[in-house]
Specification:
The chain is an alpha/beta fold and 408 residues long. The protein is built from 14 helices and 15 strands. The strands form four sheets. It has a five-stranded mixed sheet with strand order 6-5-4-7-10, with helices on both faces. A five-stranded mixed sheet has the order 13-12-11-14-15, sandwiched between helices. The protein has a three-stranded antiparallel sheet with strand order 1-3-2. Helix 6 crosses helix 13. The longest helix is centred in the last third of the chain and has 25 residues. The relative contact order is 0.14. The mean pLDDT is 92. Bound molecules: zinc ion.
Length: 408
């Protein structure tokens, strides 16, 4: 049973500030909460004594004291832990982070996730238990867990919508299933939405308020942060970039349309273009590799100067850039961030992606949109999940943090 601790209303305001902003100074805290500086100082001293907050030393690159930079305070990283779990077709990745959002343990396990929902949940619960044990934290220290699934999610019911990657998961409730196994608060979100949060909170788009994140791996996903908040649309399916039609005479898609974007630019489509080249033998022999593994191989060969591999990456970047230009014209973001396996191609993909995006975006003041490669690649989902535990709007996670602070 959880101990229901007592934290005052003003302490809660400081906890919220630290949770959402990381380290803050007394002056900043006073300004944002409307409390006087002496009141904030007293509150912070109280929280520090109880081990809820810690002082954060100002950074002095030369090691010498020149004046007195304002001292800052932050949540004690060890007050609790956040859990992130990513489900993909063929693997589960789990991470545990402290309250500074630093990963303290991470595990990746190959598993046929698409085949058996319940078995995948058992494996995920086992991974989280292992990570908590090695981090020296038991379940009572968990603020919350966020799960990433490569499918649209009904955010009210917590159910998974139709998806080609995990067809047997349709209508299932992964957050509820893991909550039953672990007895901690759990939420579920779409993988690209979590990627967008990871890059905005902790990555390439840090400090930006209008961000389009596109993930190209097995499938194409798109996550949106608009006006500083994740945008999911009316029913949670916003960002279905995969089925934007780029050629009405193109190949038939499972959705019933022709020429959907993902039939040209996901890992399967990019590598399929090499089937008839000498690379086809190695890529497709005995179905040994997943589409993501094949794409990673193609990127490596392209980096070594293979012209056919360079060509398929360039073509995919061009198609993707045109689709993203349409998104930019519609939403006017500050930046577009590429994630997923394709982002491993770095400058090789970035050049043609930028050219196509800029070439098809309306050139309005004050300038063109930034097109960037993401920081996290295939680890974006777990980092986004950890960030969402602390920085999301979920009341259960917030209340759990108050409880941990009150029990200290
Ligand atoms: Zn389609």
């Amino acid at each position: 049973m959880h101990i229901i601790g007592r934290v005052s209303g003003n302490e809660r305001r400081l906890l919220d500030l630290m949770r959402l902003q990381g380290p803050v100074s007394i002056g900043m805290a006073s300004e944002s909460t409307g409390l006087s500086r002496p009141t904030v100082t007293d509150l912070v001293n109280g929280l520090r004594k109880r081990g809820v907050a810690v002082s954060v030393e100002p950074h002095r690159p030369d090691g010498r004291a020149t004046g007195r930079p304002p001292q800052r305070f932050a949540l004690n990283p060890r007050l609790g832990v956040a859990v992130g779990v990513e489900f993909e077709r063929d693997h589960i990745r789990a991470a545990v982070g402290d309250l500074s959002l630093t990963v303290v343990g991470e595990r990746l396990r190959s598993f046929p996730v698409a085949d058996d929902f319940d078995a995948a949940m058992d494996v995920a619960a086992g991974l989280v238990e292992e990570l908590l044990a090695s981090a020296g934290a038991d379940r009572s220290r968990v603020v919350g867990a966020v799960l990433s699934v490569p499918a649209p999610v009904d955010r009210v019911e917590g159910t998974v919508h139709a998806t080609t990657i995990l067809p047997r998961w349709m209508g299932r409730r992964p957050a509820e299933a893991l909550r039953q196994r672990l007895d901690v608060a759990v939420e579920v979100d779409n993988d690209a939405s979590l990627g967008a949060i990871a890059e905005t909170e902790l990555g390439a788009a840090r400090g930006r308020r209008h961000v389009v994140y596109v993930k190209v791996s097995t499938g194409v996903g798109c996550g949106l942060v608009l006006d500083g908040r994740p945008f999911h649309g009316a029913t949670g399916t916003a960002g279905e970039l995969a089925h934007v039609v780029v050629d009405e005479h193109g190949p038939v898609c499972y959705c019933g349309n022709r020429g959907c974007l993902h039939t040209y630019v996901d890992a399967e489509a990019i590598t399929e273009g090499l089937r008839l080249t000498p690379h086809g033998e190695r890529l497709f022999r005995a179905a040994r590799y997943t589409p993501d593994e094949r794409l990673a191989m193609v990127i490596q060969w392209a980096e070594r100067g293979d012209p056919a591999c360079e060509r398929v990456i360039r073509d995919a970047a061009h198609r993707l850039g045109i689709a993203l230009a349409n998104v930019c014209n519609l939403l006017n973001p500050e930046c577009v961030v590429l994630g997923g396996t394709l982002s491993k191609a770095g400058d090789l993909v970035l050049g043609p992606l930028r050219a196509a995006t800029h070439g098809h975006t309306v050139p309005l003041a004050p300038g063109v949109v930034d097109v960037l490669v993401g920081r996290w690649q295939e680890r974006a989902e777990v980092h986004g999940a950890l960030a969402l535990v602390l920085r999301g709007a979920t009341e259960r996670f917030r209340d759990r943090l108050y409880e941990l602070a009150g029990a200290s």
